[in-house]
Amino acid sequence: MNAYEPVLTKKFLHGRTEAMRSLTPKAAKFCETWNSKFSSTSDKMLALCEATTEHSAQVKKCSLGLGIDRHLYSLKCIADMHNIDTPLFKDEGWKELNHTVLSTSNCGNPSLRLFGFGPVVPDGFGVGYIIRDNGLQYTICSKHRQTKR
Asked: Domain residue spans in the chain?
């Protein structure tokens, strides 16, 4: 499964977003640790701290223009524009990277009551969320009823 989180690149002229891939090894370890009946509370907290530290570092790198998604997409657009045959963009890995099943985004505007958006692929989910002073508001959308999934 592939997940995407947009990161603002507003430090750059006309900067918009970079795609941050939040499914990291530390995030996977956190999920495994958190769901294990053999993990202690301190194991879970350590895994959470490691995962959030890695996540924050990735966000910072992306905001500084050090992500790879937009760069690769630009190269693909240039190749397409000039009819350049590029094996990378025909590879299954490229297709997998761009089949984003989970797309998430935070809206920091506290005046909004609700926030959400649709999935970016037919079998995916869009999760919009607003972090509030006393809670979290979120919306999960899909193109189909996927309650069994």
From this structure: 101-149
Q: Which amino acid is at 28?
A: A
Global confidence as pTM: 0.76
- Residue 65's contacts (CB-CB under 8 Å, 6 or more residues apart) are 9, 11, 12, 18
Measured CA distances, 113 to 5, 17, 104, 125 (Å): 21, 23, 18, 21
Q: 3-state class of 133 per DSSP?
A: coil
Q: Give the pLDDT of residue 149.
A: 61
Q: How far apart are CA 31 and CA 52, in angstroms?
A: 12
Regions of the chain where pLDDT drops below 70: 146-149
- Letter string b/e over residues 46-83, b meaning 16 or more CB atoms within 10 A of that residue's CB: ebeebbeebbeebbeebbeeebebbebeeebeeeeeee
**What is the helix (H) or strand (E) element at residue 80, kind and residue range?**
helix 69-81
Helix H or strand E segment including 96? helix 92-97
pLDDT digits (tens, 9 = 90+) for 26-41: 999 999 999 999 999 9
